[in-house]
Amino acid sequence: MRVLMLSTPFPTHFTPMVPLAWALQGAGHEVTVAAQPDVTDAARAAGISAVDIGDRFHGLDVLLRHLPPGKRPLELMGPTPPEKMAGSAKLWETHARYLLGAYLEFARDWRPDLIVSEQMELAGQIVAGALGVPSVQHRWGVDPLSGPSRTSARHFLHGAATRLGLAGLPDPDLLLDPCPPALRHPSAAPGAPIGYVPFNGAGSAPAWLRVPPADGVRRVAVCLGRQTLVLNGTGLFRSIIAAFEGLADVEAVVTAAPEFHAGFGDVPGNVRVVEPVPLNLFLRDCHAVVHHGGANTTMTACAFGLPQVVLPQLVDQFASAEHLEKAGAARVLAEAAPQNDPAHVREAVRDVLDDPRYLRGAGELRRDMAAMPSPARVVADLERLAAG
Hints:
There is one protein chain. By secondary structure, this protein is an alpha/beta fold. 41% of the residues lie in helices and 14% in strands. It contains 18 helices and 13 strands. The chain has a 7-stranded parallel sheet with strand order 3-2-1-4-5-6-7, with helices on both faces.
């Protein structure tokens, strides 16, 4: 079976599909990723064949152009309310129409038996319909976006679909959902479960990872993704780092690109600032995670059963944070003011470490996720789907 994978041009949008790609390859199937270089670089690093379609996207340019110096998107725009979710997805409607022809040209030459797209890549369903093969959509995690944006996408892509002989934008033949029931968004259409396998990018384990925290010391991972710092997040990191000052028997490991380290100022003795390390390599020795609510970070922390402090910054991150809090697994600071106050962050960290209800909530999510069918088991469903 030949499987074509498509993704919008952010590596983190593609990453949740990597374990399924590995499972398909392990079962003897041929997998190729067709995408812009932003994604194909990540695919090749994960050992998956990839073909470049178009140029590099530089997805943060639009946001950076409108940010005043030192201001994060949250400080400029506030939290993203639910009614704005559909509007935030319009970029991907335009992206799908723009690249549809190039995707279709490659797909006609390569002749896939199945097309798998992540949740916001809409061209895959049209390409599959034009070729007469099944399509699969794979969610990142908590999904407040694809449901509300579907009506708009049907209108925007109607002409592109009908010119290819389709009645309109097709629905996927199968929707794969890695979310445990407690985190499923009410606006998201029901999907078939697929177990989440933690993978946060290619990388090597540094020497310090081989040394677990000392007895009685609780390690907290601080990871806010690569975009947060680029989007004027240095001040937020200073606030989080300062929050660990005076926290007895707690050490923090803060992951950040090295070019930003100098901007963090004086670092307390119980804080280690390191270069980015894939979270799945070191969460086993951690007791909690401070993060931004990104899909991959959220799902990885849940898979390890860890309590979380969530400081959402953009779009779907607020919905992820809200559902984690409702599940009893997280404390959330959704506004800029408490995020920027070390005292508020310190209180939240103390809370998730000391109050056993957060560990219980996180443990329930972990158990629910562990019971979901692995990507290897889902491969059999995809084989049947492709066989008709």
